[in-house]
Amino acid sequence: MKKDLKLFYNIGEVSRMLNVSETLLRFWEKEFPHIRPGKSPGGVRQYRKEDIDAIKLVYHLVKVKGMTLPGARQVLTDSREAETKKLEALERLQAVKEELLAIKRELEGIKLYSNPTK
To answer: What is the mean pLDDT of the segment spanning 81-107?
Structure first.
């Protein structure tokens, strides 16, 4: 929750957050006009939430769906909002799945504890 309070993230933080290399982030900045981090007076990239959301969408299109860079660029140009909504829905479903699996593990632990003969 604390990470949502920050206005800017440096390239190292974004790299770790999304599990991609800093080199890939710099490359995608050149390839996708939707990713435009600002720079501090010292030249450090400053990614906003909007930049991170765009990177997540590019990652999903290229790495998960297997699109080419020109194909992903076209999707971002033609239907970015629709793709963003789909990705947000997928992320919410994944979070629900993880929560349900945690509940299942907890219930299985309770079952084993209350009935040690099984």
So the answer is: 85
pTM above 0.70, yes or no: no
61 in Cβ contact with 80 (< 8 Å):
no
pLDDT at 35 over 50: yes
At 15 the pLDDT is: 94
CB atoms near residue 59 (< 10 Å): 18
List of domains in the chain:
2-114 (1.10.1660.10)
Residue 50 clears pLDDT 80, i.e. is over it = yes
CA 65 – CA 58 distance, rounded (Å): 10
Q: Which residue has the tokens 């930049």?
A: 51
Q: How far is CA 35 from the centre of its chain?
A: 14
- What Cα–Cα distance (Å) separates residue 66 from each residue in 25, 58, 60, 61, 88? 17, 11, 8, 6, 18
First to last CA, the chain: 39
